[in-house]
Design brief:
This protein is of the alpha+beta class. It has nine helices and ten strands. The strands form two sheets. Strands 4, 5, 6, 7, 8 and 10 form a six-stranded mixed sheet that branches. The chain has a four-stranded antiparallel sheet with strand order 2-1-3-9. A hairpin with a 3-residue loop joins strand 1 and strand 2.
């Protein structure tokens, strides 16, 4: 054996071909930030969306840590991470690539009839279709389909089969937001007042506005488990304001817009809203 072993050896090979790599730990997720970089207090890495002064030698900041520098890959902090890593991750956008992540057989069947053939890599549950060209990353563009390119990472599962094709407009179109913000169904905002006078119990409009603002911040700050975070935020708003009739279309649109900014579709927003109402018996 050489001084490097898999997955570090694989990472060095990929980096030599111009693909930025990072180690992934159990659960196929990036390593957490070190104490210096906790909560992004360092300002982030220079290649993140919000540039910062971070000079941390460790494997911090998820996809933004991905590198093609062999000196970094074999450095002591990274070497320690590789020994704990279960697989290699890479930043598709940094390599000028886009991965269409197909999670199940239905998604694969859709791709075969809707997208041009390209390099294909088998995954645990489905396939990665890899195209030449970078674009915005978006989750759940349709059932079982995610797009991973800029500001995202993908798991390296081998070279795949087939010739890589240029990124088609059909894939780019998947990331385009729906033409208008999702408007909740009328019943989602015309909630009947509870028993009694029907008067809103909140002392000032500011109480409601603060509640909406807190829910929006909770959604936009989420870095993982977006579906669950959106549902819990909707549930919190409805549990406090869902029975007095003070919610308006504008309030709910703020919540839906925040959810869509994190990659949720209009359908997912409506499903989460409906499920929250059902849970509360509204």
């Amino acid at each position: 054996m050489s001084e490097t072993t898999y997955p570090q050896h694989t990472a060095l090979s990929l980096a030599a071909s111009g693909v930025p790599v990072l180690p992934l730990r159990r659960g196929k997720v990036p390593f957490g930030n070190c104490t210096t970089c906790a909560d992004n207090a360092c300002g982030g890495r220079p290649n993140m969306k919000t540039p910062g002064p971070c000079r941390c030698p460790g494997v911090c900041h998820a996809w933004a840590a991905a590198t093609t520098d062999p000196a970094v890959i074999v450095s002591p902090p990274w070497a320690a991470a590789w020994r704990r890593a279960v697989c290699v991750g890479y930043h598709p956008g940094g390599a000028g690539l886009t991965v269409v992540d197909l999670d199940d057989a239905d998604a694969i069947a859709w791709a075969r009839t809707s997208l041009p053939a390209t390099r294909t890599v088998s995954t645990t549950r489905g396939q990665h279709w890899i195209y030449r060209g970078a674009m915005r990353s978006v989750n759940a563009v349709r059932p079982g389909v995610d797009i991973k390119s800029t500001m995202a990472y993908a798991r390296y599962l081998g070279p795949g089969t087939g010739h890589i094709a240029d990124l088609p407009d059909t894939v780019r179109a998947l990331a385009v937001k729906e033409p208008s913000p999702a408007r909740p169904a009328p019943h989602a905002v015309t909630v009947p007042a509870g028993p009694g006078s029907g008067q809103c119990p909140h002392r000032t409009p500011a109480y409601l506005e603060r509640g909406i603002a807190m829910a929006v911040r909770r959604i936009t700050a989420a870095r993982s488990a977006i579906h669950a975070t959106v549902y819990r935020a909707f549930l919190a708003v409805l549990s406090t304001h869902g029975r007095c009739g003070c919610l308006t279309d504008t309030h709910v649109a703020h919540l839906f817009t925040a959810a869509q900014s994190k990659g949720e579709t209009a359908r997912h927003c409506m499903d989460a809203w409906t499920n929250a109402r059902t849970t509360l018996g509204l």
